[in-house]
Write a structure and sequence with these properties.
Two copies of one chain form a homodimer. Chain A is built from 15 helices and eight strands. In chain A, helix 7 packs antiparallel against helix 8 and helix 10 packs across helix 11. Chain A is globular and about 65 Å long. At the A-B interface, strand 1, helix 8 and helix 9 of A face strand 1, helix 8 and helix 9 of B.
Chain lengths: 391, 391
């Protein structure tokens, strides 16, 4: 087990009707003027935005708002928010939505008190040291951004999709999580979210760090719970219990607990970021295509942990050969992903002729000559994985 | 799943040599004058106390110290610490030790800024609202106090052993956790700690809350990891990896994550507190006697979750009858506890003629007419469980 710091100060306020606590929570964290950030019209139509504003009114908290954040969020919306927030002298960010909305709010929270261009942090030119406090009202369980210190933004110029990771600065101070708010999520978005959270666990699980039994068992348990609950949320979208389990799993998948003491991989996420940056597909759907391809490559070249995953998560009976055990686990993962409506190939993702050369070039331009840790990928390896995903 | 708040702001600094960061961590949390609290001479003899002091010196942090905290800590030491801390105008508590030392420091942290008697909080007369900040250097993985908001103190007058639970106020701001510091723990203490952490998970796991699959799977995974690692730490006390897994498991067993969304039980802990208050036995050893007795009673009267536990944690093949499945799981738990050197009866605990009447009287005087939530125990039920432990 490696040395680690584990710091998750976010207060999770979980359950029915919890959004009415939003104003009180902001007050407890000394917010006095809030920028509410949201995406499309669904939070308006559902009445959620009104309920949240009412909660702020009741707590005597002033606010301005900015809607219109898109999936795979881009930098222009961040600049708009920074400009608005400075003009209005806001001191607290309140994203109401899913990962795209939260990540945009995080970038704004960093940008407002910073004299330079907020992109400096994503480009690795500056290290984040301070940000305005962020509270979250979550509506989409997927990205785990409500409990993480991370933010993913795409710079339109060059389609650079970059993940910024901070150990502390960008952790929300609270996250309001009412599973009822997810009842109206369409099946496709629900399934993309499930795939994303499973990937967050697996990016951490596939490592070479010896003797991380506690972390392994937590990750395996969480994956098993997601696999059990996934068909239920899809067949019964208003099943509170199933929605609650999936929502809480999405947070734990990405708040860091599944990576304690491990050297995490993350190659699949980086490979997917190039796909969604170029083709603007859903991140979760892109992961459903890339992760099994990555695993198939690993089953051949470094099967150790993939075989353990097959046995413990997918109940595969061990074969004499680790490669075969691993492949059977991957087959069960693929069957599961298909069963929840996810694509498994570029073709199924709607990309008939992917420009693999471009994806490989962008991946290594952004991430260096080798990508990932479990088995670091050079250009040849990443090309092979994109090609597996194209068959 | 029930609504819940989950808030764990403690920064866990885990791994080799981490104790040299203590001074820097206190400084980051604005401590300027520290009360170091410790127990017997082992932290002195091992050189740990010197290294910690050196770290404080390097960070220019002043300190005073109080040693001599005993297992099953009592109120006189708390009063001594409050008096010393006020006189020296300390603003930060640094327990260096295990649960008894941490819990004493927590009581002192509450008592110093409070005008009345600190026992008011344990007696339920006052609600804790503020405390001095606490940082921990952990040497015994067991109580989980390094990551919890709880503190257990025994009032000598009447031998009242009371657990105070706060959602926020008593959570340490940091916990330094170096598994190497546990290499010298004797087998008995190691095994008592393992039993205590398993009990912390099980007190939460045995509940009637429907549909807590995520929490169940995390708890089962953590129990499986502990069961795998326990024989290794006992046979190879200087095995860093095994010690590290057990140490991290002890924290996660009690920081609240294993109880999210559940109505927890805690009857076994309350029943044990009466035993260790009256007979001054090790808390973990007392739990090894009580928990299987409690489970045996539940196997007969409310086997549902006990059967699930048997199947998922102890790999029992389900019998047609839940009672039989449950009993087989309990048999495996008992065999495990024996294998790590724990007692299973009052006699093996060194108490040949337990005063069960006294224990039942004290239990219900302290905790009310019914105790626990999974199947609330009246006097007749708690008496039967103490008697099962006496056979």
């Amino acid at each position: 087990m490696n040395n680690f710091n584990f710091y998750t100060p976010t207060e999770f306020v979980f359950g029915k009707d919890t959004e009415i606590q939003t104003g009180t929570l902001i007050k407890a964290h000394r917010g006095s003027k809030v920028l509410i950030v949201y995406g499309g019209g669904s939070v308006v139509r559902s009445g959620l935005l009104s309920r949240v504003k009412q909660s702020l009114d009741t707590a005597n908290i002033a606010y301005v708002e900015m809607g219109g954040v898109q999936p795979n969020p881009t930098d222009p919306k961040v600049y708009e928010g920074i400009s608005l927030g400075r003009k209005e002298k806001i001191d607290f960010l309140l994203p109401v939505g899913g990962g795209s909305v939260i990540d945009t709010a995080k970038a704004i929270a960093l940008g407002i008190p910073y004299e330079g261009d907020f992109w400096d942090f994503y480009a690795g030119i500056s290290i984040p040291e301070k940000a305005l406090p962020i509270g979250v009202v979550l509506t989409i369980p997927a990205a785990g951004s409500e409990g993480s210190g991370n933010s993913v933004i795409t710079k339109l110029d060059g389609l650079k999709k970059i993940s910024l990771r901070t150990p502390k600065v960008l952790r929300p101070v609270f996250a309001v999580m009412n599973p009822e708010l997810t009842f109206t999520l369409p099946s496709w978005q629900t399934a993309c979210g499930i795939t994303d959270m499973m990937a967050h666990i697996m990016e951490r699980y596939f490592n070479n760090t010896p003797e991380v039994e506690v972390t392994d068992r937590l990750s395996e348990g969480l994956l098993k719970a997601i696999i059990d609950e996934a068909p239920r949320v899809l067949s019964e979208p208003e099943n509170y219990e199933a929605r609650a389990n999936i929502m809480w799993a999405g947070t734990l998948a990405h708040n860091g607990i599944c990576g304690t003491g491990c050297e995490e991989d993350w190659a699949s996420h980086f490979m997917e970021h190039e796909i969604s940056a170029v083709y603007d597909v859903s991140h979760g759907a892109g992961l459903a295509v890339i992760f099994p391809a990555w695993l198939t490559y690993m089953a051949e070249h470094h099967p150790e942990k993939v075989a353990q995953y097959a046995i413990r998560v997918w109940n595969v009976s061990p074969h004499a050969d680790k490669h075969a055990t691993a492949l059977e686990g991957i087959a069960r993962l693929k069957a599961f992903l298909h069963s929840i409506g996810m694509p498994l190939t570029f073709h199924e993702l709607g990309i008939d002729e992917p420009d693999i050369e471009l994806l490989v070039n962008k991946l290594h331009a952004n991430k260096g000559d080798v990508v990932g840790k479990y088995l670091p990928l050079d250009r040849n390896a990443s090309k092979q994985i994109y090609e597996i995903a194209n068959t």
